[in-house]
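User: Show me a protein chain along with its predicted structure.
Assistant: Here is one chain, sequence first, then structure tokens.
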Amino acid sequence: MSIAAATMPIIDLHSHWATRRGYVLQTEAEVAQQHGTWRSSPAYRIEDEMAADFEQANVRTILDFGFSKFIPLAQAAPLHDYGFATQRRFPEVIIGNWLHFQPELGAPALAEFRRCLDVANGFVGLCASGGGGLPASDPAWFPFYDLCIQAKVPALIFVGTTGLGAGFRGGMGIVLDHAHPRHLDLVAARFPELTIIAGRPAWPWQSEMIAILLHKANVWHELHGWSPRYLTDELKREIARRLQDRVLFGADYPLLSYGRLRADWAQLGLSDQVLEKLFHRNAERLFAELGHDLTPMNHVRAAPGAPGTATPGAATPTAVTPTAVTQ
């Protein structure tokens, strides 16, 4: 690995919480699935340790609870506030939060999204995941996209297959077709003022996703959840060529480790200039266009115990160093 690839800063557009309260895999069945799908085991951290993981890896990230779309709004709101409070404590490494909603709930869900945009200090973005819910092109999502445009925040629309539900009978009810890129394409065409980030590699529909990226200037692509070693050959070629200004780094910490991802990206033979764009320059440009300043020096860490800060959960088990895994 080159010195540049090993040391350059990373802006991670998508990772998960490593704390017990925020861990993306919540049920015993899901946790048991982790080893088979991601080849790792749960590695719970308290908030300070999780932030230290990001700092040591020279990473700033946007976190996603993931499971919050499956719980009632009355339970989701305190979880959102926990995310905002933790971000206030560690703004130098946690940029903000992606939030999930069940759009079929209508006005109450939209009101919670509006509340979150108003109360959060850090970045708040919308995550539209068709897995276990309505596809991104369903009209129930349209008021959420309008609010994103008004607030100048992007929508992260998941594409491609998912590890969630993999290996279960019926895939835990998740319809893979709901994450087909055509749903994102319909949204991008209908809402040209909406900035859209395609989340995850889009396999088995990667060619379709590349076509959309080349066709629509309001669409970007972050690549969480996979080791780059397993990206399609077509996508690897385009990252070095026509997509080098449109791709964004995504990890999926703690399911994937930053050390392993740095090493795997370095093995693709990309130039340091392309890696720099992928690791942080493209994200800086994207967020600058939206009016969000990602300059680290503009964020001051709140003192422990200050108003609005999170208290590390006493029920969180002893931390274990996250294991490097591949997808």
